[in-house]
Design goal:
Blueprint lengths: L19 H7 L2 H4 L5 H28 L5 H5 L3 H9 L7 E2 L2 H10 L4 H20 L11 H18 L1 H5 L8 H10 L6 H23 L9 H15 L1 H19 L24 E3 L2 E3 L1 H8 L2 H23 L6 H16 L7 E2 L1 H9 L7 H15 L1 H4 L4 H12 L7 H8 L4 H10 L4 H21 L3 E4 L4 E5 L8 H13 L7 E4 L8 H16 L4 E4 L3 H10 L5 E3 L2 H8 L8 E2 L7 H8 L1
Parallel strand pairs: 6-7, 7-8, 8-9
Antiparallel strand pairs: 1-4, 2-3, 5-6, 9-10
Helix pairs in contact: 3-6, 3-13, 3-17, 3-18, 3-20, 5-16, 5-18, 6-15, 7-15, 7-16, 8-20, 8-22, 8-23, 11-12, 11-13, 11-20, 15-16, 15-17, 22-23, 24-25
């Protein structure tokens, strides 16, 4: 199915006057809106309704994960739909509250709405700044094992955190280890009604999900009755969260009418959208006023963890679906969209949001064509705030707990350990470090895992693999680049294998895979040349790339011998006649290399 959406690859260079192409890159909706079709409108409408029916119950549930009243989930669920219409570069992504972001908010905002709203504003400012400065590349330093370790730990933390609501337990602390202890300690206080309803809701959600995964695609040649039945099944299974929560609320209301209520209910939810206002930069308490500085100090590492993880989650979702559906996303433009969503959302009491993998999957499976589908989703959320809040009173917390548990279960990747064991066992180290420390403090887990990944990366740079070929001439071939931490390793290998032998041996250094060197490497090569000269041996360089030649020319190293091929170097070093080296000077570099150097 073709889509009218065109996806920019990046920002155009700044100029005095913005061209049409530049405007389309800064405001991507200008690229696809002129080509919008009735077919795209129909598909976007269906997708928007489907996502809306998913996000409303999830928003209520995720507010519980964040430790906030349920209405804050809905306050956070609509702004991203409208902002992404104008700034988004993925047709599939939907922005809003997610399980992981809600967990992070609960860690850093002390279950205080004022802190959560301020965190959304400050996170948006940081994300917007990163977008303008094009700092999206920083997210590349958080490796996949770190992400998998964090998301798996988050799935366990979030899922277990809902056991108390599933069983109707009261006064359970939020710290994970205390939570585990108190849950098992108070298991005898389980409310039978909540437990039975919660388990029934989980089973219903699982059955509907399995039905959704196994519904065959509709073909035009199918009879109308069959197509209608497929459409009904697809609608019911796609909107399974709304369906199950509505069923649970109906059951609770039925008991309420009889005068007996066996469930813990969500309770009263304020009606309508709050009036727009600037985020709270101070909070009045019974003990005085908490200043902006004190609020920022209280959130601490959350000001780094929340915006970065929000960006990481959203861009990972966008790139995943862009790859599946064969289009490209602009990471820096996505930073702008998420940042502006959080800033504007904070004016309406939103907590930090990001891209949702689950709802994005619903969006894609519904056949969405453009980000216009989000307009219908946002409208549904606003309508629910105006007209459905009285019904939210009867939603049992155990039903919302079932929704959360089933939503976060796929985040725990059961196959990643086996995959990393087969592919690269060393990657298990950052995975395990992140996973274990995230149960203590999220920021420590992510920071420690990232540091371990960076150390592994730096070790490979400092100790590159060097292929050694023995013979009359010793041939050394670094398998990757040669940077300043690696020059000492190369020097030690040359000294031990060539210059400390008797008699000293000549060496051919194959530079085919070396595309850049720095000043420290140049100094190291100069010292090696002096060592070879003192011992009456020769160091020859083979296959120098243009950037390396340019650096060596600039450094004006004396006595460097350069050969185009290994065969030429071996003949020269074996004292065979007819082969002459190139000295490293512009006059003696081959003509095609000189042309490239002057280009």
């Amino acid at each position: 199915m073709s889509s009218p959406l065109k996806h920019p690859k990046g920002f155009a260079p700044m100029s005095c006057c913005w061209s049409t192409e530049t405007m389309q890159k800064r405001l991507p909706f200008l690229a696809w809106l002129p080509n919008y079709t009735w077919y795209a409108l129909k598909m976007d409408f269906i997708a928007g309704i489907s996502v809306g029916l998913t996000v409303i119950p999830q928003a209520l549930a995720y507010a519980e994960v964040a430790g906030l009243p349920p209405q804050y989930g809905l306050y956070s669920a609509f702004m991203g739909c409208f902002v992404y219409f104008f700034l988004g570069t993925s047709r599939d992504v939907t922005l809003g509250p997610t399980a992981i972001m809600s967990l992070l908010v609960s860690f850093y905002t002390f279950r205080e709405p004022a802190y959560a709203v301020l965190l959304a504003f400050l996170s948006g400012c940081i994300q917007l700044g990163m977008g303008f400065l094009r700092l999206g590349f920083l997210l590349d330093f958080i490796s996949c094992p770190v992400i998998k370790g964090f998301t798996s730990a988050a799935a366990i933390t979030i899922g277990f955190g809902q056991i108390k609501n599933l069983l109707g337990l009261q006064h359970i602390p939020r710290q994970f280890f205390l939570q585990v202890y108190q849950t098992f300690h108070n298991i005898g206080e389980t409310r039978v009604g909540d437990a039975v309803l919660g388990l029934v809701c989980m089973v219903l959600l699982l059955v509907l999900k399995l039905m959704r995964d196994h519904v065959p695609p509709v073909h035009p040649e199918m009879p109308p009755g069959v197509r209608l039945s497929h459409g009904l099944v697809w609608t019911a299974t796609t909107a399974r969260n709304a369906l199950v929560v509505s069923f649970a609320a109906l059951v609770a209301y039925s008991f309420e009418v009889t005068g007996y209520q066996p469930f813990v209910l969500t309770g009263k939810t304020p009606e309508g959208l709050p009036d727009p206002s600037i985020p709270p930069f101070s909070v009045a308490t019974t003990n005085g006023t908490i200043s902006f500085t004190q609020m920022v100090q209280g959130m601490g590492a959350g000001l780094a963890v929340v915006p970065l993880m929000g960006l990481l989650e959203s861009i990972a979702v966008a790139k995943s679906f862009a790859s599946q559906n064969n289009y490209r996303v602009d990471a820096n433009q996505e930073l702008l969209a998420i940042g502006l969503t959080n800033i504007l959302g904070s004016l309406f009491s939103s907590y930090p949001v990001t891209g949702s993998f689950g709802r994005t999957a619903v969006n894609a499976q519904s056949g969405v064509c453009t980000p216009a589908g989000g307009l219908m989703t946002g409208a549904l959320v606003l309508l629910s705030l105006d007209y459905l809040t009285s019904l939210f009173y009867y939603i049992p917390k155990s039903a919302l707990a079932a929704v959360i548990i089933m939503a976060v279960a796929p985040l725990f990747d059961t196959k990643i350990l086996g995959t990393l064991w087969r592919v690269k066992r060393l990657d298990l180290l950052p995975l395990c470090v992140t996973f274990l420390l995230c149960f203590w403090e999220v920021q420590y887990g992510i920071l420690a895992g990232t540091l371990v990944s960076v150390v592994i990366l730096l070790h490979s740079v400092a100790r590159p693999k060097i292929q050694v070929s023995e013979g009359p001439v010793l041939i050394l071939q670094p398998s990757s680049g040669l940077h300043f931490p690696a020059i000492e390793t190369l020097r030690e290998m040359v000294l031990s294998r060539a210059l400390e032998t008797s008699p000293p041996r000549s060496v051919a250094l194959d530079c085919t895979h070396i595309f850049s060197i720095d000043y420290t490497v140049v100094l190291g090569l100069g010292e090696l040349l002096e060592d070879f000269h003192k011992r009456g041996a020769t160091l020859a360089l083979i296959g120098l790339q243009v950037p390396v030649l340019r650096v060596l020319l600039s450094a004006d190293l004396k006595g460097v011998l350069y050969f185009s091929t290994l065969e030429e170097a071996e003949k020269y070093l074996k004292q065979e006649p007819g082969t002459q080296p190139y000295n490293i000077s512009e006059d003696s570099v081959p003509e095609h290399k000189v042309a490239l150097l002057k280009a």
